C-alpha cells in the first residue's frame, strides 16, 4: 500500500511539470470541443491527434491523449443537453433527461449536474484504479463469453420500464433495434446478413451513431419543430451567482445516483468487452428502478442526467485498466491509445507496471489532475454553452442539421451513412408520432451485437449446452441479479397494491 | 389522413417490414435453427426476432381494431396542415443538402442551405444572413478539414478543382 | 490546438528530408489511407504508425488520412478501392483477407490482381500458442495428443471465420486429422486475453498479439509456421523441422486502386520505400517479429499477389469453404 502512495506521489509530481500541465489543459479543452460536436467523440480526437504526439515524450503524449479522452467524455453531455443530440455514443442516456430539462429552462442545472457527476465518477474511478489495478486485471481475465452474455442480460434487465406505456409498441421497438444490430457481417459464421438491396455498404452494419443521430438529431428535431409550431424556444436561462449557488445546493438530490453510477461504471468499464456506453445505460436504468419517483425519469429528472454521466466517466477510466494491464482495449478510443503506446515503444501488457512505472504512474497522476481541470473548465464554460439555447430557431435548426450530417459523415467517411441517417430520422419521427418509443431501439442496437456474439460464443464453446451459463459462478451471479431486477418492479408494485388493498379494505371492515 | 388511419397504415407497414426481414434472412440461406453442438445458427437471431416484430405489429393491429390504443380513437389529422409545411420543408432541405453535397461540394451547399434557412425562412437581416453564410462553412472548414483532417465531399471534379485552389493556399502558407 | 499546429509546423520546417528527390507528381489533396480492418488491430496499428512517420518526416505535401473500412472481412474496402479506379489519392493497407475475401465472397466482383501494387511493407508470421498453465503440453506432439483426446471439446480461438487464422486452423485440422471447435472473437487482442484467462485452449496468433503475455510467462509458443526460425523465437521449432508441411505468412502490403497513373505510383513507391528503410520501421519490425528485409514493389509485387491468390484459392478449395465458415 505504501509503495502505491509513493508511486502515486511521483506520478502527481510528473503531472504538474509545466509541459505536462499545459498538455492536460490543451487536451481537456480540445476534448471538450470535439466531444460536444454531435457524432464526433473521443475516438476522432484521439485518432487524429495521435501523430502530433510523436513530437513529445511518451508520458507527455499519453497524458495529452488521456486528457483529451476525458474532455470528450464531459463534452458529450453538452450537446446531449443543449442540442438534444448525443455528442457521442456514451452520452445517449444523458439525452433522456437532459433534453427535457433544457426545454424546461433548466439547462444550467443539467449541465452542472453532468459536470459534477462526471467529476465524482472520474475521481472515484481513479481511486479504485490506483488501489486495485492488479487484482481487477486478474478478475477481468475470468470474464469469458458466458460472463459477457450474463452481463448483457443484466444490462437488459436494467432497462425494464424504460419503454412507453404501449407494451406491443415497446417490444416492437426493442426487437427492431436488435434486428438492425444484426445487419452486416456475422463474425461467427463469416457470412453477410440482411444486406438490403445487395448494397455492399450494409456489410459494415448500421452504425450506432447513425441511428442515434438519425433518431435524436433529425427525428426529435422534427418533432420539436412540430410541437412548438416553429417557435422553438429552449427557454433562456438567466445565470447569476444566486442561481449558481442554488444549483450547487441541489447536489444532494442526485448524489446517490452519482455514487451508484461511479462504482458501476468503473466495474463495467474494466471489462474488456463492455466499455462506457453500456455502463452509462445500465446506470440510468438502475437509477430509475431504485428511484423513489421512477415516473419522473425521462421527463427531466436531474438524477437521470447525473447517473449516466457519472458512469460514463468512471467507465472511461476503468477501460484504461485492461488496456494497461492486459494490452486489450476496453473501448475504440483506448484501442487507438494502445496503438500509440506501441508506436512510442511501450508495450502494454502484464509487465508494463513493473517495467515502465514512470509511465504508468505519470498517467495515473495526470488522470487526477485532468479530472479536476475538466470540471473547472466545464463549470466556467456553462454560460457559454447556454448561450446556444438563446439563438432563434431559424438559426439553430440549420446549424443542428448541418452538424448532424457532417458528424455522421465524419464517423465513417461515407455519404451512404448520411442518407441512412435521414431515412432513419424520418421513420423515427413518424413512429414517434404514433407513440412508438424510440429509446429502446437505440439501446438495443448498442447491446444487440454484444449479446448475440457472446451468446453464440458461449454456446459454441459449451457445444450447445445451455447449462454453461449457470454452471459458472460469475455468470450465475449476474443472471440472478438480472432476475432480481426484472422481478423488483413487479414485486414492489404487487406489494404496493396489496398494501393499498389492505388500507382500502380496512375502513369497510 | 387522421392519426387513426396512420396507425393502421404504420402497423401494416411494420408487419410487412418484419415479414420482409424474415424473408431476407431465409432467402440468404442462413441457418435459422439450432445447430447441433454449436448453438444458434447465423440466421436465428434476426429471423426469430423479426417474427417477434411481426407479432408485436399484429398485436398493435388487434388493439387498433378494438380501439385499445389512444391513437386508434384519435381523429385529428396525423400531420396538421400548418406543421406539414415546417416538417416537410425541414426534411426536404436536408434531402437537397445531401444531393447538393454530392454535386457542388459541401461548402457551396452549406452557403445555400444557410441562405435558405436564415434569409428565406427566418427573414433575418442581410447582415445576419451573410454572417451565417460565411461563418458556417469557415467554421466547418477549420474544424473538420484543418483540425480533424477529414476530407469532406467536394462534389463534381469541376467544383473540386475550385476548392483545391483554396486548399493549396492553406498548405502553401500555413505548413 | 492551434499551438500544437504551430509546433508541428516548426517541426516540419526543421525536418531535413529532401522532398526534391521525389518524382514530379505530388498529391494535390489529402490521401485516403484505407485500412481493410477495424481500429486497434495489427493492420490498423501499422497504418497509423506509417501515417505518423509520414508526417514526422514530412514526406508528403498533403496528409495521409487513415480510414477504417472493416466491413465484411475487408469486402467493403476492396469494393471501395475497385470503385475508385484511376484515383491517384487513395491507397490501401492490406492483409491476407485481400486474397481470401474475394474467393469466399464470389459475388463481390473484385479481382485483386487489377489493383496497383505499391510496396510490400512486411511479412507477418504465425505461431501456435497455448496457456503456460498447460504443463502437459510442451511440444507439437503432446499438443496433437491433447487435442485428439479432447476432441471437439478443444477450443481454438480466432479472429473470425474466413480470417487468416481460421484458414491456418483448418490447415492444421487437415494435417493432423483432428477436429476442433473454432470460436471467433473480435480482434487478436481479445483472443490473447481469452487464452490467458483459459477461456480457450489454443490459438494461432501473430507474435505482436502474444508477445507481452509470453514475456510475462502467461502463454507459450509451441511451433512457428515459417521457413526458418525467427530471431525473436530461437528456441521454437518450425513446423517444417517437425516434418509438417505448413508454412503460412501474413502479407502487409500497400496497394492502390486499378489504373493509377504511373507518376503517382512512382511517388507512392518512393515514399513507402523511404518509410521502409527508416530506422523507426525497421525497429518496429524487429520488436514485433515481422520480416522486413527488402521491400517488394512494382512488377515483383504484382507477381507475388498473383501467386498468393492462386495459392489461397487452392488452400480454400482444399480445406473447403465450409470448414472455414463452420456451418
Describe the SSE topology:
The complex is a heterotrimer of chains A (509), B (175) and C (327).
Chain A: H1 2-15, H2 18-35, H3 42-49, H4 58-82, H5 92-103, H6 107-141, H7 145-158, H8 167-181, E1 184-186, E2 191-193, H9 208-227, H10 241-249, H11 251-270, H12 276-289, H13 303-318, H14 320-326, H15 332-343, H16 352-355, H17 357-389, H18 393-412, H19 415-433, H20 439-461, H21 468-471, H22 473-508
Antiparallel strand pairs in A: 1-2
Helix pairs in contact in A: 1-17, 2-4, 2-17, 3-4, 3-15, 4-5, 4-6, 4-13, 4-15, 4-17, 5-6, 5-13, 6-11, 6-13, 6-14, 6-17, 7-12, 7-20, 7-22, 8-20, 9-18, 9-19, 11-12, 11-13, 12-13, 18-19
Chain B: H1 3-27, E1 34-35, E2 39-40, H2 44-66, H3 81-121, H4 126-147, H5 157-174
Antiparallel strand pairs in B: 1-2
Helix pairs in contact in B: 1-2, 3-4
Chain C: H1 2-14, E1 31-35, H2 42-56, E2 64-68, H3 75-83, E3 90-93, H4 97-104, E4 116-125, E5 127-131, H5 140-150, E6 155-158, H6 164-176, E7 181-184, H7 188-196, E8 202-205, H8 207-215, E9 219-224, E10 249-256, H9 262-277, H10 279-287, E11 296-297, H11 298-319, H12 321-325
Parallel strand pairs in C: 1-2, 1-3, 6-7, 6-8
Antiparallel strand pairs in C: 3-10, 4-10, 4-11, 5-8, 5-9
Structural class of chain A: mainly alpha
Strand residue content of chain B: under 5%
Calculate Rg of chain B over CA atoms: 25 Å
State the end-to-end distance of chain B.
59 Å
Biggest sheet statistics of chain A: 2 strands, antiparallel
- Total strands of chain A: the figure is 2
Helical content band of chain A: over 70%
Element-level helix/strand string of chain B: HEEHHHH
Oligomer: heterotrimer
The strand order across the widest sheet of chain A is: 1-2
Mind summarizing the main beta sheet of chain B? 2 strands, antiparallel
Query: What is the number of independent domains of chain B?
Result: 2
Order of helices and strands of chain A: HHHHHHHHEEHHHHHHHHHHHHHH
Count of distinct strands of chain B: 2
What is the 3D form of chain A?
A: globular
Average pLDDT across residues of chain A?
Answer: 82
Q: Write down the domain tally of chain A.
A: 1
Rounded to the nearest angstrom, the distance between the terminal CA atoms of chain A is 65 Å
What radius of gyration of chain A results from the CA coordinates?
23 Å
Amino acid at each position: 500500500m505504501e509503495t502505491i502512495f509513493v508511486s502515486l506521489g511521483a506520478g502527481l509530481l510528473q503531472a504538474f511539470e509545466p509541459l505536462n500541465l499545459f498538455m492536460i489543459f490543451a487536451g481537456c479543452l480540445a476534448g471538450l470541443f470535439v466531444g460536444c460536436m454531435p457524432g464526433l467523440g473521443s475516438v476522432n480526437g484521439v485518432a487524429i491527434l495521435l501523430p502530433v504526439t510523436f513530437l513529445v515524450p511518451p508520458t507527455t503524449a499519453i497524458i495529452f491523449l488521456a486528457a483529451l479522452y476525458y474532455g470528450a467524455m464531459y463534452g458529450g453531455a453538452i450537446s446531449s443537453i443543449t442540442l438534444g443530440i448525443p455528442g457521442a455514443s456514451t452520452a445517449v442516456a444523458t439525452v433522456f433527461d437532459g433534453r427535457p430539462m433544457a426545454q424546461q429552462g433548466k439547462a444550467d442545472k443539467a449541465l452542472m449536474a453532468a459536470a459534477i457527476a462526471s467529476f465524482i465518477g472520474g475521481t472515484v474511478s481513479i481511486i479504485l484504479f490506483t488501489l486495485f489495478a492488479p487484482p481487477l486485471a486478474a478478475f477481468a481475465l475470468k470474464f469469458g463469453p458466458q460472463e459477457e452474455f450474463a452481463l448483457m442480460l443484466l444490462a437488459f434487465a436494467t432497462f425494464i420500464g424504460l419503454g412507453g406505456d404501449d407494451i406491443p409498441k415497446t417490444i416492437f421497438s426493442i426487437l427492431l433495434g436488435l434486428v438492425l444490430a444484426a445487419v452486416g457481417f456475422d463474425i461467427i459464421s463469416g457470412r453477410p446478413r440482411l444486406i438490403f438491396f445487395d448494397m455492399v455498404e450494409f456489410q459494415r452494419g448500421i452504425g450506432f451513431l447513425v441511428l442515434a443521430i438519425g433518431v435524436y438529431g433529425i427525428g426529435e428535431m422534427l418533432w420539436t419543430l412540430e410541437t412548438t409550431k416553429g417557435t422553438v424556444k429552449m427557454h433562456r436561462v438567466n445565470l447569476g451567482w444566486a442561481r449558481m449557488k442554488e444549483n450547487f445546493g441541489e447536489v444532494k438530490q442526485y448524489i446517490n445516483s452519482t455514487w451508484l453510477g461511479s462504482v458501476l461504471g468503473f466495474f463495467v468499464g474494466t471489462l474488456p468487452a463492455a466499455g462506457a456506453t453500456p455502463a452509462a445505460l445500465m446506470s440510468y436504468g438502475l437509477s430509475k428502478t431504485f428511484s423513489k419517483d421512477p415516473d419522473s425519469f425521462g421527463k427531466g429528472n436531474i438524477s437521470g442526467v447525473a447517473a449516466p454521466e457519472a458512469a460514463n466517466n468512471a467507465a472511461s477510466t476503468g477501460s484504461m485498466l485492461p488496456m494497461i494491464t492486459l494490452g486489450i482495449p476496453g473501448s475504440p478510443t483506448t484501442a487507438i491509445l494502445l496503438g500509440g503506446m506501441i508506436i512510442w515503444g511501450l508495450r502494454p501488457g502484464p509487465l508494463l507496471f513493473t517495467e515502465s512505472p514512470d509511465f504508468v504512474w505519470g498517467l495515473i497522476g495526470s488522470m487526477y489532475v485532468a479530472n479536476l481541470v475538466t470540471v473547472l473548465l466545464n463549470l466556467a464554460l456553462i454560460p457559454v454553452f447556454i448561450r446556444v439555447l438563446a439563438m432563434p430557431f431559424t438559426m439553430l435548426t440549420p446549424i443542428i442539421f448541418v452538424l448532424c450530417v457532417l458528424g455522421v459523415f465524419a464517423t465513417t467517411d461515407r455519404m451512404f451513412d448520411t442518407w441512412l441517417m435521414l431515412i432513419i430520422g424520418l421513420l423515427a419521427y413518424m413512429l414517434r408520432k404514433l407513440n412508438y418509443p424510440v429509446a429502446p431501439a437505440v439501446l438495443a442496437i448498442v447491446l444487440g451485437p454484444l449479446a448475440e456474439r457472446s451468446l453464440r460464443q458461449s454456446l459454441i464453446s459449451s457445444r450447445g449446452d445451455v447449462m454453461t451459463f449457470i454452471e459458472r459462478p460469475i455468470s450465475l451471479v449476474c443472471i440472478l441479479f438480472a432476475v432480481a431486477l426484472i422481478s423488483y418492479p413487479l414485486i414492489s408494485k404487487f406489494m404496493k397494491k396489496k398494501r393499498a388493498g389492505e388500507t382500502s379494505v380496512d375502513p369497510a371492515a | 389522413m387522421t392519426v387513426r388511419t396512420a396507425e393502421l397504415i404504420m402497423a401494416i407497414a411494420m408487419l410487412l417490414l418484419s415479414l420482409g426481414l424474415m424473408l431476407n434472412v431465409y432467402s440468404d440461406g442462413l441457418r435459422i435453427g439450432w445447430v447441433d453442438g454449436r448453438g444458434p445458427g447465423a440466421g436465428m437471431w434476426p429471423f426469430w426476432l423479426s417474427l417477434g416484430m411481426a407479432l408485436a405489429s399484429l398485436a398493435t393491429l388487434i388493439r387498433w381494431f378494438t380501439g385499445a390504443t389512444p391513437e386508434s380513437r384519435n381523429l385529428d389529422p396525423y400531420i396538421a396542415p400548418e406543421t406539414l409545411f415546417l416538417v416537410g420543408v425541414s426534411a426536404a432541405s436536408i434531402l437537397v443538402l445531401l444531393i447538393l453535397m454530392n454535386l457542388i461540394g459541401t461548402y457551396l451547399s452549406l452557403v445555400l442551405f444557410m441562405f435558405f434557412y436564415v434569409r428565406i425562412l427566418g427573414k433575418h437581416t442581410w447582415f445576419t444572413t451573410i454572417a451565417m453564410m460565411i461563418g458556417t462553412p469557415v467554421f466547418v472548414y477549420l474544424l473538420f478539414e484543418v483540425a480533424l483532417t477529414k476530407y469532406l465531399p467536394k462534389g463534381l471534379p469541376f467544383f473540386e478543382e475550385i476548392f483545391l485552389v483554396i486548399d493549396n493556399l492553406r498548405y502553401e502558407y500555413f505548413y | 490546438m492551434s499551438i500544437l499546429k504551430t509546433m508541428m509546423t516548426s517541426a516540419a520546417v526543421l525536418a531535413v528530408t529532401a522532398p526534391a528527390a521525389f518524382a514530379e507528381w505530388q498529391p494535390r489533396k489529402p490521401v485516403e489511407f484505407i485500412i481493410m480492418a477495424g481500429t486497434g488491430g495489427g493492420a490498423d496499428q501499422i497504418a497509423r504508425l506509417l501515417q505518423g512517420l509520414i508526417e514526422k518526416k514530412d514526406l508528403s505535401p498533403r496528409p495521409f488520412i487513415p480510414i477504417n473500412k472493416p466491413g465484411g472481412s475487408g469486402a467493403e474496402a476492396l469494393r471501395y478501392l475497385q470503385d475508385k479506379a484511376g484515383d491517384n489519392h487513395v491507397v490501401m493497407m492490406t492483409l491476407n483477407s485481400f486474397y481470401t475475401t474475394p474467393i469466399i465472397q464470389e459475388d463481390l466482383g473484385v479481382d485483386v490482381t487489377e489493383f496497383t501494387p505499391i510496396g510490400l511493407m512486411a511479412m507477418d508470421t504465425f505461431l501456435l500458442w497455448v496457456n503456460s498453465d498447460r504443463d502437459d503440453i510442451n511440444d507439437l506432439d503432446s499438443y496433437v495428443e491433447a487435442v485428439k483426446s479432447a476432441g471437439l471439446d478443444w477450443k481454438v480461438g480466432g479472429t473470425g471465420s474466413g480470417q487468416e487464422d481460421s484458414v491456418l486452423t483448418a490447415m492444421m485440422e487437415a494435417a493432423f486429422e483432428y477436429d476442433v471447435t473454432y470460436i471467433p472473437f473480435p480482434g487478436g487482442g481479445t483472443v490473447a486475453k481469452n487464452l490467458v484467462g483459459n477461456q480457450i485452449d489454443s490459438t494461432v496468433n501473430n507474435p505482436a498479439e502474444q508477445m507481452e503475455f509470453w514475456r510475462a510467462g502467461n502463454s507459450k509458443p509451441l511451433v512457428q509456421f515459417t521457413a526458418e526460425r525467427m530471431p525473436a523465437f530461437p528456441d521454437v521449432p518450425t513446423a517444417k523441422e517437425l516434418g509438417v508441411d505448413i508454412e503460412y505468412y501474413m502479407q502487409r502490403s500497400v496497394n492502390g486502386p486499378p489504373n493509377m497513373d504511373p507518376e503517382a505510383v512512382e511517388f507512392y513507391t518512393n515514399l513507402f520505400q523511404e518509410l521502409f528503410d527508416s530506422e523507426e520501421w525497421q525497429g518496429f519490425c524487429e520488436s514485433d517479429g515481422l520480416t522486413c528485409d527488402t521491400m517488394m514493389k512494382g512488377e515483383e509485387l504484382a507477381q507475388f499477389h498473383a501467386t498468393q491468390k492462386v495459392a489461397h484459392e487452392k488452400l480454400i478449395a482444399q480445406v473447403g469453404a465450409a470448414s472455414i465458415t463452420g456451418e
